[in-house]
Amino acid sequence: MIPLTYYLILSSIVFTIGLYGIMSQRNGVRLLMSVELMLNSANINLVAFSSYNDDMSGQVFTLFSIALAAAEAIIGFAILLSIFRMRDMINIDDINILRW
Amino acid sequence: MMAVDIAGIGELIMFALVSTLTIIFSILVVTAKDVVRASLSLIVTLVSVAGIYVLLNAQFIGMVQILIYVGGIGVLILFAVMLTTQELKGGSDD
Amino acid sequence: MINKAINGAVALLFLAVVALAIVTTTWITVDELPQNLADQSNIEAIGVQIFTQFVIPFEVLSLVLLGALIGAVYIAKSEVEK
Amino acid sequence: MAIDSLAFLIPLLPALAFVITFFFGKKMYSGGALIPIGAIAISCIISILITINLLQNPEVVVHQSYPWFAIFNLGILIDPLAGVMLCMVTFVSLLIHIYAVGYMSHDPAKPRYFAETALFTAAMLGVVLSDNILQLFICWELVGLCSYLLIGFWYQKPSAAAAAKKAFLTTRVGDVMFLTGIIILFSSIFTIYNGNLPEGIYVLQFNEMFKLIPELSAMHTTILGSEVSMLTIITLLFFGGAVGKSGQFPLHVWLPDAMEGPTTVSALIHAATMVTAGVYLVARTFPMFMGAPDALIVVAYVGGFTALFASTMGIVMNDIKRVLAFSTISQLGYMMLGLGMGAVVGMEAVGVSMFHLINHAFFKALLFLCAGSVIHSVGTQDMRQMGGVGKVMPITFITMLVASLALAGFGIPGTQIGTSGFFSKDAIIETTYLFGEHTGNYIPYIFGIVAALLTSIYIFRLLFMTFTGKARTDYGGHESPSSMTVPLSILAVLALIFGALTQTKFYRFLDETFINNFVHVNIGDLAELGNYHLVHGHHGEPLLILWMPIIVGVAGLLISFLIYYLKVVDMSKIVSRNNFVFKLLYNRYYQHHIFIEVISLQLTYGLSLVGEFIDRKIIDGIIDGISDGTIAIGEIIRKIQTGVVQSYATAVIAGVGLLIILLKLIVEVQ
Q1: Which residues contact D477 (CB under 8 A, 6 or more apart)?
Q2: Window A:22-51, CB contacts with C under 8 Å
Q3: What ipTM was reported for this prediction?
Q4: What is B2-83's CATH number, 1.20.120.1200, 2.170.150.40, 3.90.950.20, 2.30.30.30?
């Protein structure tokens, strides 16, 4: 059997890649994609723990998490779209109307 | 004993394969120059994560992952890319 | 470019910390991945859990999705009528 | 017990009001203000009825609990501590809502305002009602979010948006500490039970937490070579959360800036509710603090220092609301100081501190609402442009005067005559004296008494500069509408008499908090754990100590009166006396007039110059230096703030990583 550690390391690597994306990307859509990566790594963790502890709640939480990710993607996309309508770009460096 | 070992090795190989896929394509997501390419890599990443779920004996979650993530969010992100890219904008919306 | 280098360094630092924590922790696990032959894909177990123990979060989730739907429509609709 | 079963309505009604007002408020009268007002009024009535029940029967508390998931639950706990908080929050919130109908009448975004304040009230009530620390934390975060929304209510103003962000991020520092405390607490409990959490009990409920205090206190970990008990770490982290929320010393920076919101928001957030959440948290988990003597000392010192530090800054401010903001920080410092005295007076510290909290809520809300009334009428927040407002706004002036007297703590010791602030503040100062007497450490007392003097100076400076004298600019003020003056009057009456009415009852009532059918704590055991010698019945203070707070209060009033009311007279008197002395000397020693002139001029003028130098450069210099230093440090630090969220995120992640490595290097958990 594969040790649990492998899955955790895999998930932390995917999470780090997502994190790097969050920190370095300037394009709104790419930011959203990086967030999806991070969410997925969290889900891998949940499912891995669920399987290795023989406890089904982890998988139920994964389902919830997937549904919430869908909601989050929809909202993020809607915001990007409305910003794009207003400004004709989605470079988040230039979206600073809420900034002081 | 031997059989178990072989099964274990097979599992390990599968895991190595799927996790390599996941990592390579998720790196592509953040490094690819073209946004469309990045979003397609994201979809591949999501599919391989579904593979990991299956390896973890969570087949149902794997199915849901493919249905919702790949089918729903993947398409949504592709749409987002199409709708918010300047070059492709002409006449697509409005 | 310098920014990307800093970001990469920070991400690697994070990965190092997390990986270290994962490797040094002793995880308590079952000996063999559980295999329920009657319910290979866990659908039944998950369904039972969702509709018994987690029924309230499940209902709340439906409201969240509805809210997301309405919010998305509201945000993304064109502002011509204003 | 019919009324107990309605307890869940207390937070639920304002939450419902939020939904209704938010979505349908536009079409209703006055932006749907009546919905939250009605909801909070019902909550207020329910809370008062429950509290009256409790008052008659304090050992039977209202406790309802429902399983949430796994080992967590959702629950309602109304014991005397929560009961008085509930009444205070709902009542002050109700008055502020009524006041806001008049104050916000010209604002187009009224529905959003009323929806957000209703949500804020609901969240705050959630904090108060929680029966477990996790639920408290969730509501705590919701309070933080609402404060962000409300401070940034006029988000079109860049300064308001910045202030909202600052408040959110600064309190977030405290919140992270709080969360860390909860996590450490949970993992410690897990260790205590050897990983087998007992079935059927929720370990994060307050009573379960308190039962484990001896075990937690026995767990040790090594930090930088010295052994620290787990309980101390947990309580210090909890206190960190309270520091962020209650604007204590290192994290107080957000509170003055938060005055960018509407004045009603300032009154709601900075007088009655949000900032007191930190004090409430410490009071709620007070048995744990009792078991950790080091943490209690930290609470006392941070509180005392904050009380002093903030009041020095209050003296130099010219913005009326900022003076009040610093005053709030200072008074919260007093409450923390009072809690920190638990090492000597035991559970009575909770009573003393909560009494000040309640009284402070009344008079500080009143001060803010009066300031709001003045701002509403005059149209500026700068006190240098006001003056003589008392003539055009008599009701506001009288209520403000009452509030100022209460803040400065005026009353006659030994009798039942006095403003509410007098009873509560005196109690805290006396407790610090008692602390000094029993431990030989008079520093908290000095903090308290000096801060009391400064408090009196700045509040009367505000009063004289704003309401008396001649109008310095042409502002054409008018008295506010009755929806604003009625709440002012109610609060003024309460600020005046509440203390005298409830003083003795209050302590006895709150002493029951940790001895009832739900939470049961043995004070003696805790005192043994912390090596305390608790003192009961303290009436042996010297007369001077009893009178000291009122003496410094009057002294402050006189100083302000001389400087800010008689300012013109005083100055001209000095000038004329100079002339008079000069002339007298000139006439008498006519032949030596050049010599005398030189002497008189040189000496008198020189002396007055020295006096002026001491006054201007040294005294003002110290005070200005503090504020200039703060500003200068701020100028340096603000360079780091690029405003790009991503770079913040990068910094946060790098910080967390480095912190973990650092902790790994210096901490060895045993």
Answers
A1: D374, D377, D378, D389, D392, D393
A2: 23-24, 51
A3: 0.68
A4: 1.20.120.1200
